[in-house]
Amino acid sequence: MKAVLSKNETIIASDVYKADNIIKRTLGLLGKKTLENSKGLLIVPCNSIHSIGMQFDFDAVFICKNQKVVYLIEKMKPFKVSPIIFKAIKVLELPEGTIEKFSIKVDDIIEFKD
């Protein structure tokens, strides 16, 4: 699936994997050495993440039920824990620098398309 920033119809990730069960959500990006450009991981349901055991930095976009961005983490380092973002119902993990590259801001809308 694709993640599209609706304010300018820009594809921010063309290959998004959905982690929507306990096994996929638990594994997440563990074991990966990097997250390649244009790839992403959508964790559903989710309102907090960690990077314990990760081997690289990444960006995280917290999204509410209306597809609106409610919180951003740029360059999350390994072995960190995010705050709980109570409005968020999903988190999109993206390659480091994606938030800056596409000027993603709180209140932007991100749509997911097949």
Structure in a nutshell:
The protein is 9% helix and 37% strand.
How would you characterize the overall build of this protein?
With 114 residues, the protein is mainly β. Helix content is 9%, strand content 37%. Strand 5 (58-63) and strand 6 (69-76) form a beta hairpin. It has two helices and eight strands, in the order E-E-E-H-E-E-E-E-H-E. The chain has helices spanning 22-27, 98-101, and strands at residues 2-5, 10-13, 15-19, 39-43, 58-63, 69-76, 90-95, 110-113. Strands 3-4-7-5-6 form a five-stranded mixed sheet. It has a three-stranded antiparallel sheet with strand order 2-1-8, with no helix packed on it. The mean pLDDT is 94.
H/E element order: EEEHEEEEHE
Helix percentage = under 10%
Strand order within the widest beta sheet? 3-4-7-5-6
Number of helices: 2
**Which ranges are low-confidence, i.e. pLDDT below 50, for 5 or more consecutive residues?**
none
As a whole number of angstroms, the C-alpha radius of gyration is 13 Å
- Total strands: the figure is 8
Average pLDDT across residues?
94
State the shape: globular
Distance between the termini: 4 Å
Largest sheet: 5 strands, mixed
Topology:
Elements: E1 2-5, E2 10-13, E3 15-19, H1 22-27, E4 39-43, E5 58-63, E6 69-76, E7 90-95, H2 98-101, E8 110-113
Parallel strand pairs: 3-4
Antiparallel strand pairs: 1-2, 1-8, 4-7, 5-6, 5-7
What labels would you give this structure?
114 residues, mainly beta, 5-stranded mixed β-sheet, 3-stranded antiparallel β-sheet, 2 helices, 9% helix
